Amino acid sequence: MYPFAALTQRVREMTMRGLDVINLDVGSPDMPPPTQVIEALAHSSSVSDHHGYAGYKGTPEFREAVARYYQRRFGVKVDPEKEVLPLLGSKEGIVNLILGFVDSGDTVLVPDVGYPSYSMGAYLADGDAFFVPTPEHLGYTPNLDAIPADVLERSKILWVNYPNNPTGATVDTAFYARMVEFCARHGILLASDNPYCDVTFEGYRAGSALEAPGALEHAVEFISFSKTYNMAGWRLGAAVGSQSALKTLLNIKSNMDSGHFRAIYDAGIIAMDTVAQDWIDERNRVYQRRRDLILQALPSIGLSAHTPKGSLYIWAKTENGDGVAYAESALVDANVSLAPGEFYGPGGKAYVRFSIATPRN
Ligand SMILES: Cc1ncc(COP(=O)(O)O)c(C=O)c1O
After folding, report:
1. Distance of alpha carbon 242 from alpha carbon 78, whole angstroms
2. Beta bridge partner(s), residue 131
């Protein structure tokens, strides 16, 4: 089972017993989307012929809006017809991409530590996951030298994710250029999971893997409305990049789902075309204040952490190296739900993860 599903169930049971649990585990934005996005949903859903299937590839207008977003936000020009595919939330696309690429005997290169769906997707596809170390001293970037030659031979996809869940680490454009070059050399697809590109602090602006030379041939990137526009429950995202990778993904998806409700696409267009950077900056300032509050408290509760420049998380190291025991004690003794670092791979043993997507009171 997905690690969070069991924790969420436990918190629900505690709440039903009357306990006031402070939930700092999952990264589900607590603030609403911009008003015009909600209005666009209401407007589009009131149109009588907007209730049929909207297409396996979503609407052309939505794909064009994603292409405009890439041009404006990253300076990357993509073909909305062949290089953009809407998703029912990026998690769906992540797992379906793996299902499309991986068979028994194949391997997926997943960061240790990283978002659990990369390895879970590999197992669902009857493949293997190789946990590539992303040590603190490399700024939580993958140590590619640690991948054995025979594993590399069997590998189909390399996952990267910056701003990173769970560590909050960020990278520069040169990093993506190195990853694209590595993947091109070994015949591997680079999959860049980029849902936190617009959740950044102190003026830091995250880039896209698709800015790197050759990326449109060797990489696919996932963006999400969940965190950029506080729309996690709407389940809207997009995969952008390699035409052949998107074809494979569409092959799986068109047999599995029939796209989203038209009104969701229409509201998504309004989000991408009209939400001002000021709205994003203001929202990020709220997250930043929460980040700083938690960082300040960490030394007094036996934890230490770097200051993240992006994402919704603080990756805090325990003194005794046992994140599972720390999270258990926080839950049982203080009614505070944290994510044990182990959820994110063996390299997370000593850590707990705090989410800043929870209001102060
Ligand atoms: C790194 C990462 N990728 C993907 C997702 C999934 O996001 P979505 O809501 O778009 O499915 C999350 C959600 O927390 C995440 O942290």
Report:
1. 10
2. 110
Which of 88, 224, 311 to mutate to test ligand 1, by most ligand atoms within 8 A of the CB atom? 224
Domain 39-274 has CATH 3.40.640.10: yes
At residue 119, φ and ψ (nearest 5 deg) are -75, -40
- Whether residue 14 has pLDDT greater than 90: yes
pLDDT at position 6 is 86
232 lines ligand 1 (CB under 6 A): yes
Nearest of 166, 223, 158, 159 to residue 196 by alpha carbon? 223
CATH of domain 3-33+279-355: 3.90.1150.10
Q: 14 CB contacts (<8 Å, ≥6 apart)? A: 21, 331, 335
Shortest-distance Cα residue to atom 13 of ligand 1: 27
Label residue 139 exposed, middle or buried (CB < 10 Å: 0-12, 13-18, 19+).
Answer: middle
pLDDT mean over 320-336: 96
Distance (Å) from CA 313 to ligand 1 centroid: 12
Q: What angle, rounded to 10 degrees, do the helices at 90-101 and 243-256 form?
A: 100
Instruction: Give the domain ranges of the chain.
Output: 3-33+279-355, 39-274
Dist. CA 91 → ligand 1 center (Å): 6
Token pair recorded at residue 181: 């070059």
| Whether the CB of 134 sits within 6 Å of ligand 1 | no
Pocket flag, ligand 1, residue 90 (CB < 6 Å): yes
Judge if the beta carbon of residue 223 lies within 6 A of ligand 1.
no
Please compute the mean of the pLDDT values over residues 88-98 and round it to a whole number: 97
Amino acid at 218: H
